[in-house]
C-alpha cells in the first residue's frame, strides 16, 4: 500500500540525506588506452546501506578534433540556402542503424596460410583431414574455393538448386518449372545475362550463419564483432532489435566467410560467459518462409 | 563503423569534394543545388541555389572562400562559400562538366561537353581575387579530343592540364602554348570511357577509373603507367588515401540494370586496394545503387561516398582500419 508519508518520516529522511558527507568522494578513472572510463560513486540505498556504484563506459573518438583556426571559425557560420529553414523533423543527417564492417577478403593474420592453400590445395586437404574443397559453383573438387571460382560468371545455377531440396530456397526453380502464364522476373528468364545473381541473394545471408542466443540487452553489433572476429573473417553481424522499444531481443547472427571459422567459433563460444549471461551459439536454422 | 547518412539530394550524386582543412564536404548531384556539409558530423551548412541543371563537378579554393561548380545548364558558377551567394557566371554554348582550380587559385579549368554540333573543349579562365573584376573571357581554349571530357585537372606547377574522357585516352596539355604534349599509349591505356580522375596529395601521380572495370595509376609528368587495379565492375569513382597506401574504387553496374538485380549482386561496395601491391584489401558496403563519387578527407581518417541512390555516406574509420599491414 502506497501511503503518503507522515511529516515525521519526511524529517527523518532529510536527516538521512545529510549523511552524504560521510561517503567517499566520486572517483573517475580513465579513459585508459582502450578508451575505458570507470566512474565509482557511493550512495545510500533505500535501506540506508552504503552501496558502491561502478559505471564502466567506453569512450570512442571518431575523428581527431585537431582543427585549424579557420575551421573552428567556420563551425559558427550561420546556415544559408535551403539549410536556413530546415525543420527539426527533416532528419537529413542520420547515423546508420546498421554497423558497416570494413570487409577484408582475408582474415587478418591468415595471409601465409591462405597462400599455401591456393598453392597446393591437395596437400592442404590431406593434412587438414576433414577439409574437402568442392566448388559449389562449378562442382570441381579440390581445385579452388567457391569464392575464388574462375567460372562463377559462366556457371549455370542448376547444380546449386538440385543439391538443395529446401522449397524455401528454390524460388527460381519454381519460376522455371511454372506454367507459361506465371510471371518470370527478367533475371530468371532464358537468355538473361546474370543468371546466378538471383540465386545468390537468399543464400548469402544464410551461408555460414551462426546464431547467438542469450545476449545481454546492451550487446550491440560492434561488441559481437569484437567477440567473433578472432575466429575468422566475419562478413556480417546483426543483433535483433525490438522495433517498438528499440531494445535488444537477446539474439543475433554472425556470418563467417568460411564454414570452419564458424565451427571454431561455435566450439569455443557455446557456453561462454559473456556479460554475466551464458551464450548459446549454434548454426542458424535456414529461414522458413 | 557506423556511417553517417546524408540525404540532402533528391537525385543521384555526381561529385564530392573536401576543402583543404577537411572540415567541409561539398556535394554535387543531378538536382540543381550543390550542398555543403560539416565533414565531422554530417550537419548541413548550406546550399548553393542558382543552377538550372545537373551539377557535374565542383572545386573549392585552398582558403575555402570560393567554390566553382560546373553544370549542365551550360554555365559554371563562382560562389562565396560562406554565404552561398553567386559571384560570377561563366556562360558556355554547351554543358559544363569538369572544373578545377589551379595551384594558387588564380586560374580555373572548365571543360564543356560536345553539344549540337559543337565539339568538346577545355577552357582556362582567370579568377580574380576581387569578384568585381572577374571577366568571362577564356585565357586559353583547348580543342581536339572526340567525345566528352569527363575530368580535367592541373598538372604540377600549373604547367600542364591533364584531361581524360569518353575516348579513353589520358592527355597532357601545355598551359602556355595550348599544345598537346602527351597522350598515353593505346596498348596500356583504358579500353573504355574514363569516368574519374583523382590526383595524389602532392600531385606527383594520379589515378583514373574507367568503365573497362579497371583503374590505373599514372605519373603526372611522364605519363608512365605505374599500376593497374582490376575489379569486377565498371569504375565510376576513384579516390586515393592521403595517409596510407590505399586506393578506393567505387562503381557498380549500369543504372538501367539496377532495378532488376539485388543490391548485393550489384557490387555497390567501395573497394579498397593496396596502392603498391595492387591487391584488394577490403570493401565497404552500404549503397543501394552504384557509387558515383568518392572523396577522402585530407587527414585520411574518414571518407565519403555518393551514390546513384541520392545518399552521401560519410565513414569515419574504426581503429582497426589503420592496423591493416602494408609496405
UniProtKB/TrEMBL annotation, chain A:
PROSITE patterns reported for this sequence: RRM
CDD domains per the UniProt record, alphabetical: eIF3G, RRM_eIF3G_like
Residues of the signal peptide: none
Record's function text: RNA-binding component of the eukaryotic translation initiation factor 3 (eIF-3) complex, which is involved in protein synthesis of a specialized repertoire of mRNAs and, together with other initiation factors, stimulates binding of mRNA and methionyl-tRNAi to the 40S ribosome. The eIF-3 complex specifically targets and initiates translation of a subset of mRNAs involved in cell proliferation. This subunit can bind 18S rRNA.
Bias-annotated ranges (Polar residues): 157-171
Start-end of Basic and acidic residues biased regions: 105-114
UniProt feature coiled coil, ranges: none
InterPro entries reported in the protein's UniProt record: eIF3_g (IPR017334), eIF3g_N (IPR024675), eIF3G_RRM (IPR034240), Nucleotide-bd_a/b_plait_sf (IPR012677), RBD_domain_sf (IPR035979), RRM_dom (IPR000504)
Name of this protein: Eukaryotic translation initiation factor 3 subunit G
Superkingdom per UniProt: Eukaryota
Organism: Lactuca saligna (Willowleaf lettuce)
Alphabetically ordered keywords of this record: Cytoplasm, Initiation factor, Protein biosynthesis, RNA-binding
Major site of localization recorded for this protein: cytoplasm
Biased composition (Low complexity): 172-182
Compartments reported by the entry: Cytoplasm
GO molecular function annotations of the record: RNA binding; translation initiation factor activity
Assigned protein family: Belongs to the eIF-3 subunit G family.
Subunit-level organization: Component of the eukaryotic translation initiation factor 3 (eIF-3) complex.
Spans annotated as Disordered: 105-124, 157-186
Pfam families: eIF3g, RRM_1
GO biological process entries: formation of cytoplasmic translation initiation complex
The RRM domain, residue ranges: 208-286
GO cellular component: eukaryotic 43S preinitiation complex; eukaryotic 48S preinitiation complex; eukaryotic translation initiation factor 3 complex
From TrEMBL, chain B:
Function noted in UniProt: Component of the eukaryotic translation initiation factor 3 (eIF-3) complex, which is involved in protein synthesis of a specialized repertoire of mRNAs and, together with other initiation factors, stimulates binding of mRNA and methionyl-tRNAi to the 40S ribosome. The eIF-3 complex specifically targets and initiates translation of a subset of mRNAs involved in cell proliferation.
Quaternary assembly: Component of the eukaryotic translation initiation factor 3 (eIF-3) complex.
Single GO MF descriptor: translation initiation factor activity
InterPro entries named among the record's database cross-references: eIF3i (IPR027525), WD40/YVTN_repeat-like_dom_sf (IPR015943), WD40_PAC1 (IPR020472), WD40_repeat_CS (IPR019775), WD40_repeat_dom_sf (IPR036322), WD40_rpt (IPR001680)
Name this protein carries in UniProt: Eukaryotic translation initiation factor 3 subunit I
Main location: cytoplasm
WD repeats: 6-47, 48-89, 142-183, 187-228, 284-314
Protein family according to the UniProt entry: Belongs to the eIF-3 subunit I family.
Keyword Repeat (UniProt): yes
Key word Ubl conjugation present: no
Gene Ontology CC annotation, any one: eukaryotic 43S preinitiation complex
Lineage top rank: taxon: Eukaryota
GO biological process: formation of cytoplasmic translation initiation complex
Compartments, as annotated in UniProt: Cytoplasm
Alphabetical UniProt keywords: Cytoplasm, Initiation factor, Protein biosynthesis, Repeat, WD repeat
Amino acid at each position: 500500500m502506497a501511503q503518503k508519508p507522515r511529516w515525521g518520516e519526511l524529517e527523518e529522511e532529510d536527516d538521512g540525506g545529510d549523511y552524504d558527507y560521510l561517503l567517499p568522494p566520486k572517483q573517475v578513472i580513465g579513459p585508459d588506452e582502450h578508451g575505458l572510463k570507470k566512474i565509482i560513486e557511493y550512495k545510500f540505498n533505500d535501506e540506508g546501506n552504503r552501496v558502491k556504484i561502478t559505471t564502466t563506459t567506453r569512450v570512442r573518438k571518431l575523428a581527431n578534433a585537431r582543427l585549424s583556426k579557420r575551421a573552428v571559425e567556420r563551425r559558427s557560420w550561420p546556415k544559408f540556402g535551403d539549410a536556413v529553414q530546415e525543420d527539426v523533423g527533416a532528419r537529413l543527417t542520420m547515423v546508420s542503424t546498421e554497423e558497416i564492417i570494413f570487409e577484408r577478403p582475408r582474415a587478418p593474420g591468415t595471409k601465409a596460410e591462405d597462400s599455401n592453400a591456393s598453392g597446393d590445395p591437395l596437400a592442404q586437404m590431406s593434412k587438414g583431414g576433414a577439409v574437402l574443397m568442392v566448388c559449389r559453383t562449378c562442382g570441381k573438387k579440390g581445385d579452388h574455393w567457391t569464392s575464388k571460382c574462375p567460372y562463377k560468371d559462366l556457371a549455370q545455377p542448376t547444380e546449386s538448386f538440385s543439391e538443395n531440396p529446401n522449397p524455401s530456397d528454390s524460388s527460381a526453380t519454381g519460376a522455371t518449372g511454372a506454367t507459361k502464364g506465371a510471371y518470370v522476373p527478367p533475371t530468371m528468364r532464358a537468355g538473361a545475362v546474370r543468371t546466378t545473381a538471383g540465386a545468390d541473394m537468399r543464400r548469402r545471408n544464410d551461408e555460414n550463419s551462426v546464431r547467438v542466443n542469450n545476449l545481454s540487452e546492451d550487446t550491440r553489433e560492434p561488441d559481437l564483432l569484437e567477440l567473433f572476429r578472432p575466429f575468422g573473417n566475419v562478413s556480417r553481424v546483426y543483433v535483433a532489435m525490438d522495433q517498438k522499444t528499440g531494445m535488444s531481443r537477446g539474439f543475433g547472427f554472425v556470418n563467417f566467410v568460411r564454414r570452419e571459422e564458424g565451427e571454431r567459433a561455435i566450439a569455443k563460444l557455446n557456453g561462454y560467459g559473456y556479460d554475466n549471461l551464458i551464450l548459446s551459439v549454434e548454426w542458424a536454422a535456414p529461414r522458413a518462409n | 563503423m557506423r556511417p553517417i547518412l546524408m540525404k540532402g539530394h533528391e537525385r543521384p550524386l555526381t561529385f564530392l569534394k573536401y576543402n583543404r582543412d577537411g572540415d567541409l564536404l561539398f556535394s554535387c548531384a543531378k538536382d540543381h543545388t550543390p550542398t555543403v556539409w560539416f565533414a565531422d558530423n554530417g550537419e548541413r551548412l548550406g546550399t548553393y541555389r542558382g543552377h538550372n541543371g545537373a551539377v557535374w563537378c565542383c572545386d573549392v579554393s585552398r582558403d575555402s572562400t570560393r567554390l566553382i561548380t560546373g553544370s549542365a545548364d551550360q554555365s559554371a558558377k563562382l560562389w562565396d562559400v560562406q554565404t552561398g551567394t553567386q559571384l560570377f557566371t561563366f556562360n558556355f554554348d554547351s554543358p559544363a562538366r569538369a572544373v578545377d582550380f589551379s595551384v594558387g587559385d588564380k586560374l580555373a579549368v572548365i571543360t564543356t561537353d560536345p553539344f549540337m554540333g559543337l565539339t568538346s573543349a577545355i577552357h582556362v579562365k582567370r579568377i580574380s581575387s576581387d569578384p568585381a573584376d572577374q571577366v568571362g573571357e577564356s585565357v586559353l581554349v583547348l580543342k581536339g579530343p572526340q567525345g566528352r571530357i569527363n575530368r580535367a585537372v592541373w598538372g604540377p606547377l600549373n604547367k600542364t592540364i591533364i584531361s581524360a574522357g569518353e575516348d579513353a585516352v589520358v592527355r597532357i596539355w601545355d598551359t602556355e602554348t595550348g599544345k598537346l604534349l602527351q597522350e598515353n599509349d593505346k596498348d596500356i591505356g583504358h579500353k573504355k570511357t574514363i569516368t574519374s580522375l583523382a590526383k595524389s596529395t602532392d600531385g606527383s601521380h594520379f589515378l583514373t577509373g574507367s568503365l573497362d572495370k579497371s583503374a590505373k595509376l599514372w605519373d603526372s609528368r611522364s605519363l608512365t603507367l605505374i599500376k593497374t587495379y582490376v575489379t569486377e565492375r565498371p569504375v565510376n569513382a576513384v579516390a586515393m588515401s592521403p595517409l596510407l597506401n590505399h586506393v578506393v574504387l567505387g562503381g557498380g553496374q549500369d543504372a538501367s540494370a539496377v532495378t532488376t538485380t539485388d543490391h548485393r549482386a550489384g557490387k555497390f561496395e567501395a573497394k579498397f586496394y593496396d596502392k603498391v601491391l595492387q591487391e584488394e584489401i577490403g570493401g565497404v558496403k552500404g549503397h543501394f545503387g552504384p557509387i558515383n563519387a568518392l572523396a577522402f578527407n585530407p587527414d585520411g581518417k574518414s571518407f565519403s561516398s555518393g551514390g546513384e541512390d541520392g545518399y552521401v555516406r560519410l565513414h569515419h574509420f574504426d581503429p582497426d582500419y589503420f592496423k591493416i599491414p602494408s609496405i
